[in-house]
Amino acid sequence: MTKCLDPVILNLWHPIGAIAEAVPGAVQDTVLLEERLSFALNADGEPVVWRSHPDVQGPARVPAADRLPARSTYGYVWTSLGSPPAELFLIPEYEEPDRRKLNAATFGVNVSAPRAIENFLDMGHFPYVHTDILGVEPHTEVKEYDVEISVDRDEILATRCRFFQPMASTASDGGADVDYVYRVPHPYCSVLYKSSPVDEARRDVIAVFLQPVDQEHVRAHMLLCVLDEDNEDKVIKRFQQTIFGQDKPILENQVPKRLPLDPRAETPIRADKSAIAYRRWLSQKGITYGVIPVAA
Amino acid sequence: MLEEARSRWHPIAAAHDLQFRHVFHGQLLGREFAVWRADDGYVNIWENRCLHRGVRLSIGINDGRELKCQYHGWRYSNRTAGCTYIPAHPADAPARTITNRTFPAVERYGLVWSSEEPRGELPDVIGLAEGKLLALRGIPVNAPADKVVERLKAYRFQPNGAIDGEGAEILIDAAQDFAVALRSRDGDAQTHGVFFVQPVDSNRSVIRGVLDQDAEGAARIDILRHHNERLSKLRDQVEREAANVPSPAPIEPVYERVSAELAEMPGMTTHGRKAALRVTVARKWQTADGIAGFELRPIKGILPTFQPGAHIDVHMPNGEIRQYSITNGPGETDSFVIGVKLERDSKGGSKCMHETVREGDVLAISEPRNNFPLRRDSTKTLFVAGGIGITPLLAMAQALKNQDLTHELHYFAQGEEHLAFADRLKYLGDALKPHLGLSPDQTGAELRQIVADYRNGMHLYICGPGPMLEAARKIATEQGWPDTAVHFEYFKNTNKIDDSSSFEVALARSCVTLQVPAGKTIMQVMRESGIDVPSSCEQGACGTCVATVIEGEPDHQDVYLNDAERKAGTKIMTCVSRAKSARLVLDI
Ligand code: FES
Ligand SMILES: [Fe+2]
């Protein structure tokens, strides 16, 4: 497989690890877009990222030429192999002081990043893949919702999404429709807002940041930014890990692994509106990495 | 070589790999298959990829009649591979053209055979008589097929009758590109073995051996073990050799694109096409008093996919065309079974079916159309059938039964002898509730009880004679059932059609404006100007000719739309309904 030549993808910020799991001074090795990278937090707790090199053993001695752009945002270390924009997309809720912010999990999945994003946007699979948790038969309908590609923010927004969830809130034990809003502000990242079971007026935020290891492998970093004062970290994390563990075998059994952008490669239905918009958006951006572009 | 290989038949599994309700993952020349046997014995070999989002169907669920995808629960029918249900849109019937790619399947010599583009039939293999054969365990080898075949020519084994012996004499009977036939002789014992090599991919193969004699018990196990050990050794040798040369690139399968029409996000309705199919009457029998059952089999090929609630048009020898619901359960795709009631005042339709049509006759039928789709997201489904109105509801009830979804089938009939399709009714078990010999008043009282407890999420399906249907709809409304939860199908439209109005129809997409005079229908006028309109009953009962109204006020004269739909004024049956306004704009 050739290394990434896609300029759009090269110039993006990509997540490579959770800050909470980094020990200051300790070097971690990872792979991004088929390049071997190392990173560590320096004495000030700032991330330093460089192309892996046997001679470089720690953040203090990285030659300037080997250093890559680095930032710490939303609890993760981000880097880029090109010239990234000054800012990363915004998640304003992250700043709200009463929210719990956690890296729920980092999972390796044998699939392309765009396939994983589509799965994140998809409600129709809840009764089948997340049975009794996010959905249950016979409540399988995906009701009409709205999707727009916002030009000024350059992101996809799906609103008015509703799906029947058994045990929708901690207060009542019956099932009910739960509201969702989905954003795709980055080709390989998505943010989901979901009715909070504890506060009707606010929403939990769950984001998935995909680290493209290569065209057909990702590391999925899952951020939780939720309203929950009662449960222990590990309980909250375990729930998301269960959900993700259910998606993984499905994702790894999708063929082809890269996302086909040709509208005639697969059969969309109305429920797939957001995925259709996403594929179109990737096409318009001219993205070639992790996808099968439309034949010219 | 590869092109040549594509047009040949190859074994892709042993018959015993296709276990009950299992889906086997097969592969041939780089292409993956989902292989499954339905409960009726039919072997399905499909592209291993759900048409929706590409998930492997080999991880799907075989319920004996249909294969269900794990990701979003799409269901594909036995034999036709057509999609019968899309759970995300329970109210819509999936387009009949959502059909997975299928490959031919032949079971012979204890193996399952297929081919990508077969030239001709599966050839007979000399020396292997069907019957007392022993298929060995398949041995996967990481090497190209030709290398494996080369090695197999030197394969040594003992005949079944002298399995513990040593030094049998081996003769090569035949050797081809993908098979070697060997004969082993030791004293009086002699066994003929054919070793097929399945080209899985450019660098992977499976050896599938078949011996010309079977054995029982311990002897059989000894024989299997004997070959297993020797073939495994052979595999190790071939793999060692293959590891020394660079391995060829894997074969990239080419996936067919879906039709342009399906790639668009589909709208709410789909139209069947008129193409007539030819079927023979394989069986005709009296299934109840005054009701004849007909089993219609395709003359060649397979029948198209149907969904519960669908009907076909039957073109009769006397020129009449009538609609009959398909009573089949899911996955029962080798024939269509319909029920025809002899109508006393028959204009020749049911009379012709009862008196003229015989077993062996050929009839032309339309493709199935589904204007009475079944939701399967209901918390409880009630079916109310009157007399011959049982037919569509029977298909629906069997579908729900197959998926273990809660339902009741209330069947009103004059007496026991009037209950049709006893075998199918029996399959439904306790869900069947017959109501026999009731007067209209008693029927009303019974209906009132049946629909008494409406809860959000329940659905009611009614089919039967006009007066009973009217009564049931009225009672349901009185008991608080919303229009959206009550679904019905009339046999015919008994309304007196008033065609005295004249008005203008503009067809928005075709960019034409037509005048509809008194005495002619919108459909007739459209057809006269060459516009193709699908239709079936042509009396406002079946829903096939529905059109979307963009502007104007329809004058509904059909019995297909419910009150809410009539009021909304966005749909019109062009075969009978007209306009109250001077102008109607349709989305055609
Ligand atoms: S991928 Fe098979 S149902 Fe969606
Ligand atoms: Fe999921």
Largest binding interface between chains: A-B, 33 and 35 residues
- The sequence of SSEs of chain A as H and E is HEEEEEEEEHHEEEEEEHEHE
**Uncertain residue ranges of chain B:** 266-273
Residue fraction in strands of chain B: 25-35%
| Cα distance spanning the termini of chain A | 22 Å
Work out the number of β strands of chain B.
Answer: 35
Q: Indicate the CATH architecture of the largest domain in chain A.
A: Alpha-Beta Complex
In percent, how helical is the residue content of chain B? 10-25%
- How many strands, which pairing sense, and closed or not: the largest β-sheet of chain B? 6 strands, antiparallel
> Globular, elongated, flat, extended or rod-shaped: what is the shape of chain A?
globular
- Note the total helix count of chain B: 11
**CATH superfamily membership of the largest domain in chain B, which one?**
START domain
Number of strands of chain A: 16
Assign the CATH architecture of the largest domain in chain B: 2-Layer Sandwich
Could you name the ranges of chain A where pLDDT drops below 50 across 5 or more consecutive residues? none
Structural class designation of chain A:
alpha+beta
Task: Indicate the topology.
The complex is a heterodimer of chains A (296) and B (588).
Chain A: H1 7-10, E1 14-18, E2 28-32, E3 35-41, E4 47-51, E5 67-68, E6 70-73, E7 76-79, E8 100-109, H2 113-121, H3 126-129, E9 146-150, E10 155-165, E11 176-186, E12 189-195, E13 203-214, E14 217-226, H4 233-251, E15 259-260, H5 273-285, E16 291-292
Chain B: H1 2-6, E1 10-14, E2 23-28, E3 31-37, E4 43-47, E5 61-62, E6 66-68, E7 75-77, E8 83-85, E9 102-103, E10 106-108, E11 111-114, E12 134-135, E13 139-141, H2 145-152, E14 169-175, E15 179-186, E16 189-201, E17 204-211, H3 217-243, H4 260-263, E18 277-288, E19 291-298, E20 311-315, E21 321-325, E22 336-341, H5 349-355, E23 362-365, E24 380-386, H6 390-402, E25 407-413, H7 422-427, E26 432-436, H8 440-450, E27 458-463, H9 466-478, E28 486-489, E29 503-507, E30 512-516, H10 522-528, E31 546-551, E32 554-555, H11 563-568, E33 571-573, E34 578-579, E35 583-586
Parallel strand pairs in B: 24-25, 24-27, 25-26, 27-28, 29-35
Antiparallel strand pairs in B: 1-11, 2-3, 3-4, 4-9, 5-6, 6-7, 7-8, 10-11, 12-17, 13-17, 14-15, 15-16, 16-17, 18-19, 18-23, 19-22, 20-21, 20-23, 29-30, 31-33, 31-35, 32-34
Helix pairs in contact in B: 2-3, 8-9
The site of fe (ii) ion has 5 residues of chain A, from loops.
